[in-house]
Amino acid sequence: MRSDRTLRVYLWLVVGVAMPVLVLAALAAVRGFDGRPRGTVAVIVIVFCLVLIAGELWPIPVARGKGAGDDLTVSSTFGFGLLFVAPVFIAMMAQAVALTVDALWRRRPLDRLAFNIAQYALAYWVARAVYAAVAKVPFTPMHPAPLPALLPSAAAGTAFLLVNNTLVAIAVAISVQMRLGRVLLDDLKWQITTSAPLLGLGPLTVQAMMWTPASIVLLLMPIIALHHSGTMLMNREREARRDALTGLANRTVLHIAGTEALQKSTGGTALLLLDLDHFKEVNDTLGHGVGDQVLIAVAQRLPGAVGPLDLVARLGGDEFVVLARGVDSASEALALANRICSAVNVPVALHGVAIAVGCSVGVALGPAHGDSVQDLLRCADVALYQAKSTRGAVAVYDGTADRHSAAELGLQADLAMALAHAGAGQVWVAYQPQLSIASGRSTSVECLVRWRHPTLGEIQPDHFIPIAEGGALIHRLFELVVDKALGQLVEWDRSGLVLTASVNVSARQLSNAGLPETIRRCLDRHGIAPRRLILEVTETRLMSDPARSVEIIVELRKQGVQISIDDFGTGYSSLAYLQRISADELKIDRSFVQEIDDPGVANIVRSTIDLGHNLGYRVVAEGVEDADTAVRLADMGCDVLQGYLIGEPVAAQDLPAQIDAMVWVPRGRVLRDVDDGRTVLPINLRRAMALPRRAVRDSAV
Ligand code: C2E
Ligand code: CA
Ligand code: CA
Fold first, then answer.
1. Which among 131, 161, 121, 164 is positioned nearest to 22, based on CA atoms?
2. In this structure, which of 10, 133, 554, 576 has its CB flanked by the most CB atoms within 10 Å?
3. Which residue's CA lies nearest to atom 20 of ligand 1?
4. CATH number at residue 634
5. How many independent structural domains does the chain possess?
6. Do the Cβ atoms of 620 and 609 come closer than 8 Å?
7. pTM score of the predicted model
């Protein structure tokens, strides 16, 4: 994938270069060294080799700041020390053994091992060559070796760090697609403050050991202390950076790593947002303990499905994020997303029971879709929603399908202005009358918000409500609609028109704990009885945070406010939903009402009306556009009708006239249009009902 090929070529290239150097070093060792090390030198060589291997296996964990951590090995200290007393080949070999043992123990990939051996071999070789040149001594140390000289040691140490780090930095730059200079620069402070002093200990250690080999005990003590405190510090830091349940990185780490990738990578960065399917049901039916086990199992699968340098984080709940660097195209990101899905979509076996696990993934690509982690998360969230709603498992963010495009962000700002200057009347409320079949009168209205944009003209609520929901505007918008509606009720009361107001509540509002209080204040301000306010909620609005929404609904009903279940029948689990909340009214969605000529749909409508009644609800049919439909609904026992037939949404001042225009039609009577005296026939009404003049005319024969 991605730059993997280039990386592999590079790794093997370094190995290729190191091969002859190793052979040369071996030859030099055989030729230049007068016999095997003896006495103190032999002790030093053996001790150093052992400590070098131990150092590689038990690195000192250290924090690198900004939430990143690293391992510090003391192996190079002793490898470097070896250069002063033994042929360079011995340091190379000791290092190779240490790296091999470590790689086998930690199951690291073998191509990396070959590279690491080569990288150290080259670094040691260059370091010794520089030392020999500056100190003017032979390449292979004489026996017994003289004490290391200070300046040449410094030069050799610098050469070692330079070669070692550059070789690694090139590999990093290739794999995360960053500029080499940038990688080296980022690493510089770390090298100067940490690696260099450790390396400097090498010649000092040789000096001390030559004084007495027992000094190794004194030398190891501070290293062990450092190891101990480093581990403790790292554990604490790891806790702050890890998700407690799964041990994956948390939001903070994602933020830091993502920001770095976006700012420093020369290639693209993909952010994959993963959400488990039906996790809530697992939690609800099998308990949180099992839910946690499923999350842990998924967390364990993810790292194996992504690249070694990709970051896996858990945001909370059943949401995970994978941050992948060097992803330049949607197809690469999709391939990764599919790999993740196949890894996750394997049942989790718990106590002998297999629990099905599935996931959906939303993908956003930086910098194409955003240059901050927040932006990418938002885009990935939109893509995830698209994936879930199309029932596909993965989707890449599609800007054109996103409601929050740049133009709409502009609209959001405009809407904020319009709401801040509510007096200017850009945002107003239209009222649509509802007809109570039993009384034959209009006793209620639905309040529908309208926005007259100064340059764009009328904008439909279906268009701007989601924009308001994207920001915090929805709260202000809702308050404005309720306030205007209740104020209007008071005004109509004065003229003798007593109505009930239905107001739509959006998803964001329903999870707002302050909603009951807001409504109480509004009702008090206008002195309106709570029963005269009906809040229309929909299933999708309820679903975003079901437990919270249900609590708020219970609270509102306690207050005396009525609840209406809007757009009933369009959700995908409407019956479950009915069981969850208690309401006062059920509104059959207009998609059913408008298809009522279809016998199947008619059956559904009839059953829904019965269902509503059995639950003790008033049943409203919306979208009633013609008299035949009105009659059928009345026949089926529907309580309230709403739709263009009854009246269109109009400004407050036009509503009384519209209500007056309704004609009282007694049951089973021949109808006479009051305007032109024509006889209209025959609507076989079984109950008395009112119809507006237009309806009477429509059904004329
Ligand atoms: P809704 O709650 O289903 O509102 C009824 C919609 O149906 C209104 O559209 C209304 O004009 C339209 N309608 C009424 N009678 C008929 C009919 O006979 N035939 C047809 N085809 N349509 C009819 P509108 O005003 O464009 O509102 C659209 C949606 O915007 C509403 O759907 C509601 O979900 C939302 N909305 C409107 N006002 C508000 C509000 O103040 N707050 C919130 N959160 N949402 C609102
Ligand atoms: Ca509604
Ligand atoms: Ca509706």
1. 121
2. 10
3. 623
4. 3.20.20.450
5. 4
6. no
7. 0.51
Instruction: Give the CA radius of gyration of the chain.
Output: 38
Alpha-helical segments (H) within 33-149: 39-57, 75-82, 88-105, 110-135
Alpha helix ranges (H) inside 246-372: 251-264, 279-286, 288-305, 330-344
How far, in Å, CA of 57 to CA of 101, rounded? 8
Ligand 1 pocket check for 458: Cβ under 6 Å? no
CA-to-CA distance for 559 and 297, rounded, in angstroms?
Answer: 45
Residues 430-444: pLDDT tens digits? 999 999 988 888 899
**pLDDT per position as a tens digit, 156-206:** 999 999 999 999 889 888 877 788 888 888 888 878 888 888 888 899 988
Closest protein CA for atom 21 of ligand 1: 623
Q: Ligand 1 pocket, 460 CB below 6 A?
A: yes
Tokens of 177: 């697609």
Q: How many CA atoms lie within 13 A of 487 on its CB side?
A: 9
Nearest-atom number in ligand 1 for the CA of 642 is: 15
Ligand 1 centroid to 643 CA: how many Å? 10
Token couple for 456: 């764009």
What span, in angstroms and rounded, lies between the C-alpha atoms of 171 and 4?
Answer: 10
C-alpha pair distances (Å), 512 with each of 280, 519, 544? 21, 12, 11
Measuring from atom 19 of ligand 1, which residue has the nearest CA? 623
Q: Mean pLDDT throughout 38-59? A: 86
Q: Which residue has the higher pLDDT, 129 or 691?
A: 129
Phi-psi category of residue 391: left, alpha or beta, with phi > 0 → left and psi -120 to 50 → alpha: left
pLDDT > 70: what percent of the chain?
87
Can you tell me the mean pLDDT for 415-421?
89
Would you give the distance in Å from CA 152 to the centre of its chain?
A: 54
Tokens of 76: 């190079």
Whether 255 maps to a domain, the answer reads: yes
Give the pLDDT score at 57.
87
Look at 84-93, 282-291, 476-485, 678-687 and tell me which has the smallest mean pLDDT. 678-687
Task: Tell me: pLDDT of 66 over 90.
Answer: no
- Digit-coded pLDDT (tens) for 18-28: 999 999 999 88
Closest residue to atom 29 of ligand 1, CA basis: 462
505 CA closest ligand 1 atom index: 44
Question: Alpha-carbon distance 518 to 476, whole Å?
Answer: 10
Last residue of a domain, one of 353, 385, 401: 401
377 Cβ partners below 8 Å, 6+ apart?
271, 273, 321, 364
User: Residue 494: which domain range?
Assistant: 425-660
Cα gap 303→312, rounded to integer Å? 7
- The average pLDDT across 628-634 equals 89
pLDDT of residue 125: 96
What residue type is assigned to position 437 of the chain?
Answer: I
Residue in 627, 629, 631, 696 with CA at minimum distance from that of residue 663: 696
One domain, residues 76 and 182: yes
Of 300, 330, 442, which Cα lies nearest the Cα of 394? 330
Q: Are residues 282 and 350 in the same domain?
A: yes
CA-to-CA distance for 384 and 390, rounded, in angstroms? 10
- Kindly state whether residues 59 and 206 are assigned to the same domain: yes
Q: Categorise residue 613: left if φ over 0, alpha if ψ from -120 to 50, beta otherwise.
A: alpha
Position 483, amino acid: D
Amino acid found at 463:
H
Q: Encoding tokens for residue 574?
A: 């409407």
